Amino acid sequence: MKFFIDTANLDQIKEAQDMGILDGVTTNPSLMAKEGITGTDNIMKHYVDICNIVDGDVSAEVISTDFDGMVREGEALAELHDQIVIKLPMIKDGVKACKYFSDRDIKTNVTLVFSPGQALLAAKAGATYVSPFIGRLDDVSTDGLNLIAEIRHIYDNYAFETQILAASVRHTMHVIDCAKLGADVMTGPLKSIVGLLNHPLTDIGLEKFLADYKKGN
Ligand code: G3P
User: How far apart, in whole angstroms, are the C-alpha atoms of residue 169 and residue 172?
Assistant: First the structure.
């Protein structure tokens, strides 16, 4: 299972990268705004800064909602760095743009996916990644993890190569459940990654090992 971090915060990206377990980064316009990154030039520069920190794929989202605009923006983003993945919204023109980029071997991430039918369309359009938003489904009393299971089932039926990127992951149990269900990738905040470290028995055990070592020295 690949671990992506879902942030535009360079310090958090560095922290996850330094652990040696980071496979990539996802961003969106809201995450950029949260870091105070505004304006096309600054946003483009920030994508390059992120690519220079991590080794893997970095999703960069288009703002256009029409096919021509998405292609224009996506091509400019793809030029920035070979780690850039074009993130496209799950709308009709987004599906069309996904096919356009996949035909040209440019990686894509179809985002804002909330149903198995949308995931099927993304796979048909040759998406590299499909991003079902599990936390936002949970927010509206719908089982986000069930969507991961449904997409896994459908993709396995037909050996679709599109990778299921569980997005809108909010906490460690989402990560573990996505791993059980066979999501290819998860993207979440830093706390959902480093939180996996925590167990009181580890802390107690380490404390005892160190105390016993000191007794003998
Ligand atoms: O990757 C999608 C993600 O950024 C959405 O997360 O927590 O805003 O629902 P959230």
Answer: 8
Q: Indicate if 87 belongs to the active site.
A: yes
67 close to 89: Cβ distance less than 8 angstroms: no
Contacts 24+ apart (CB under 8 A), 161-165: 162/119, 162/122, 162/123, 162/126, 162/127, 162/128, 162/129, 162/130, 163/2, 163/128, 163/129, 163/130, 164/119, 164/129, 164/130, 164/132, 165/4, 165/26, 165/109, 165/129, 165/130, 165/131, 165/132
Rounded Cα distance between 77 and 83, Å, is 10
| Nearest-CA residue for atom 1 of ligand 1 | 167
Question: Separation of 139 CA from ligand 1 center, angstroms?
Answer: 11
Write down the pTM of the prediction.
0.96
Given pLDDT bands bounded at 50, 70 and 90, which one contains residue 56?
A: very high
Mean pLDDT taken over the chain: 98
pLDDT in tens, 154-194: 999 999 999 999 999 999 999 999 999 999 999 999 999 99
Q: Which of 2, 32, 8, 63 is nearest to 190 (CA)?
A: 8
Find the 167 Cα to ligand 1 centroid distance in Å.
6
Pocket test residue of 133, 140, 178 for ligand 1, highest count of atoms within 8 A of CB: 133
Kindly report the protein residue whose alpha carbon is nearest to atom 10 of ligand 1.
Answer: 168
In the numeric block, which tokens belong to residue 50?
């992120």
**HSE toward the beta carbon, residue 135, CA cutoff 13 A:** 17
